[in-house]
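Look at one record.

>
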Amino acid sequence: RVENVLVSSFKISNVLLDVLVYCYHHSDLGMMMYFKEKQREKKDASRIKRPLPFDQRTPLSVLLPGMNVTGTVISLTAFGAYVDIGTECDGLLHVSQISNEFFVEHPKQVLTPGDEITVKVRTLDVDKKKLHLTMLPDDVVEQQQAMRGAEQDERIPLEEIYVEDELWGELRRVTDYGAYVEVGAVVDGWLHFMDHPAFGWANGAHPSKYMTPGDRVRVWVSDVDHTQRRIKLTANRPSHLPGPRRAL
């Protein structure tokens, strides 16, 4: 058996042994599917099911800047964590707002999906349904706002956005083939009409019949092109992720 040869000839870990054995017994296509499945398992581990449906949630208008709230960490990205505090949209806890005691390179250093945490409302926009949270002391937040302006829009670099990241967005412009979605990144994302949940029952209707500028949508990143600086989105939850298949 190839396992015995590898173990007797080399001192390797069990994980590496599993990979080598798999590669020995499977084709190139099999290897590609194997590693893709491992990537999916890693992504699934960074998400958690939501405790409350979105149609049973509290409007953002009840919140005030500086208010302390308790929430559940739903998902982690390179630029921060999305926290469910029971409102109509998740709050973004940017990686720079997690700790003032040490540098946080990635939120996974401190947080895990499912964690119950206490955060403070930093900024919110009821009309655009944007909510930013912080875990920093008041004096640090005030100092940050004084340095860059409280209303400055924090744009997420393209390099910090990955496939299957879950984001909140606002439809900006609707075309014959879909809509551009503002997701807080340096560029707007593109949502093709076939990737919208309403496409299945629209019966060939123009995208403007079920996509309206200003609508808030929950989307997942399907592709990031760093060369062309483009983000492709889908409003259909990937089937292997927890939660309902079609949810805006």
Summary: Residues 54-141 form a domain with the OB fold (Dihydrolipoamide Acetyltransferase, E2P) fold (CATH 2.40.50.140). The helical segments are 2-9, 14-25, 28-44, 138-148. The chain is about 20% helix and 25% strand.
